[in-house]
Amino acid sequence: MGNTPEATPQTSVPRNRVVRWLDERFGWEQLVAPLRHKTVPVHKLSYWYFLGGMTLFLFMIQVLTGILLLLYYRPSANEAFESVQYIMTQVKFGWLVRSIHSWSANLMIFTAFAHMFSVLFLRAYTKPRELTWVTGMVLLFLALGFGFSGYLLPWNTLAFFATKVGTEITGQVPVIGKPLLIFLRGGEEVTGATLTRFFGFHVALLPGITTMLIALHVLLIQRLGMSVPPGLEAAWKELPPNKRETPFFPNFFAHELMAWYVALGVLGALAALYPWELGTKADPFAVAPAGIKPEWYFMFMFQTLKLIPAKVGPIDGELVGILGFGLVGLIWVLLPFLGGDRHSRRQVFIRGLGVFALAYMFSMTIYGYMAAK
Amino acid sequence: MDHAETATRHEPARRRFMQFLLGGGLLASAASFLYPIVRYLVPPAAVDLGGDSVVAAKVGDLKPNSGKIFRFGSRPGLLVLTGDGEYHAMSAVCTHLNCTVQYRADVREVWCACHNGFYDLNGRNVAGPPPRPLESYDVHIKGDEIFVSRRRRA
C-alpha cells in the first residue's frame, strides 16, 4: 500500500479548489487526516458519549447569547438592573435571548455534572486519560464560577444576597480567606465594585481560560481516542471481529448535530414557556428576604452548611464544612491518580464513592428545597 | 420481488422528496433562529424627549459676538448673538461628518474644527468640505427666556 503514490497524504490532491489552495500552502489534508480516521466505538452505552459534546454546544450557546446581551447590558450598580429590565421589555426578543442564556447556563451545569459522573462510572478517567479528567474537573469548577459570577450581574435582591453569602463563605477559609474575600468583593462589602469585578470575571477572565482549557480537553480526547467500558474492551480484545466502530465524521457528528438541534428546540421552548424572572433591584440596606436560597447546583453545599452545628469540637462548624468540601473537590480532581488503572480493585471503591456522592448531592438538594419552603 | 423492484425504481424521486423536506425544515428553522437575533440587534428607537421647542438660554447669558451650544432633543444646537444684538440658532451638527460646530468670533462665522468647514450665520455652507447647510431654527424671546424651535415646513 505504501508503494502506491496515491495513498500517501502528500500526493493526494483534494478536489475542492479552496481546499486545494489551503493544502498547497500548509498541508491541509495532513492536518485533517486524524479527523477523517477518528472513530467512535458503538455499543449499548454509546449514548453517554453525547454528554461532553452537549456541554460544549451549550457553552457555544452561552458565548453567542452572552455576546448579544453585552450589546445592551451595563455593568454598574446604578444601571445594571435597569439595563436588564430594558433588555427584557424594550429590546425585540431581548427576553428570549436572556432567558436562553439563563436556561442554557443551568442545563450546561447539569450536563457537565452528568458528563463527569458518566466518565467516572464508565472508568473512562483512568490511565491514560488522567489529564483529560483533570482538565474536565477544572472546567466543571469554571462552569460553577460562571454561574456564581453571572448570577450577580442583573443586580437583583436574590443575587445580591447570594453573592454576600457566597463570598462570605470564601472568607472563612483559613489564612487566604480574608484577602480572597476582599479581592472578590473589591472591598469589604458587596457593592458596585463587586459587580464590576464579577462582570470582568464573567465576560473576560473565565471565558478566556475556559476556551483554552476546552481546546486542551478536546485535543486530549482527539489524541487518546474514545474510551471503551472495561468489560467491553476485554470482550473486544478476545474476539476482535465483534468490535464495532463508526466514523466520527460524518456519522457520529451527524448524530451529535441532531442532538444539538433537539437541545436548541428544548431551550427555545423552556425560554418561551418559563422566561427567566428579574426580581427586584438590589438594595444594600434592605433586609434579606425569607426563603433565600442559592442556585440549585450550590444547594447541596448550602444545605450541608446549614446542618453543621456552630461548633464541631473546638473548630467553627462553617470551617469544617468548607474544608470538607475543599478536600472532597481536591480528591475528586486527583481520582485518576488515586484509583490505579481501570482493572484495579480500588475502582470498586471509587464507584461506591461516586454512587454515594451522587446520592448525597441528590438528597441534599431535595432536602434543601423542602427546607426552604 | 415485484414490490422491491418498484421500490428501487422510485428511490431517486423519494430521496429527492426527503431531501427537500429535510433541507426545507433545516432552512426554516435556521430562519427562525436568525430572525430573533437580527431583530435583537436593531436597537429600539430612543424617545426624543426634546420636542420641537427648547429654552436655549436666558437673555443676558450671551455676550455680543459669541455663541453657545444647547441641547436640542438628543443633538446639540448652536445659538449665536451677533454684534448687532441679533440671535441666530441652527443645528450644531456639521453636515460633513457629524462633528459639533462652534462660533468663531474672529471671522464672525460658524466653524467646524474637524475639517475646517465654514458656515455663515444662516447656516449656509460657505467654505470647506460641508456639502449642505446646517438646519437653521427659529428664535423667539419670551420674558427673559430664549426659545428655539424647529422651523415648520410650509
Polypeptide structure, described:
The complex is a heterodimer of chains A (373) and B (154). By secondary structure, chain A is mainly α. Chain A has a domain at 38-288: Cytochrome Bc1 Complex, Chain C (Up-down Bundle), CATH 1.20.810. Helix content of chain A is 68%, strand content 3%. Chain A is built from 14 helices and four strands. Chain A has helices at 17-26, 28-37, 50-70, 80-89, 94-121, 130-152, 157-171, 177-185, 192-224, 230-238, 248-273, 299-307, 317-338, 346-372, and strands at residues 39-41, 245-247, 311-312, 315-316. In chain A, the strands form two sheets. Chain A has a two-stranded antiparallel ribbon. In chain A, strands 3-4 form a two-stranded antiparallel sheet. In chain A, strand 3 and strand 4 form a beta hairpin. In chain A, helix 6 runs antiparallel to helix 13. Chain A is globular. Chain B folds into two domains: 1-42; 53-149, Rieske Iron-sulfur Protein (3-layer Sandwich), CATH 2.102.10.10. Chain B is built from one helix and ten strands. In chain B, strands 1-10-9-4-3-2 form a six-stranded antiparallel β-sheet, with no helix packed on it. A four-stranded antiparallel β-sheet of chain B has the order 5-6-7-8, with no helix packed on it. In chain B, a hairpin with a 2-residue loop joins strand 2 and strand 3 (75-81). The mean pLDDT of chain B is 89.
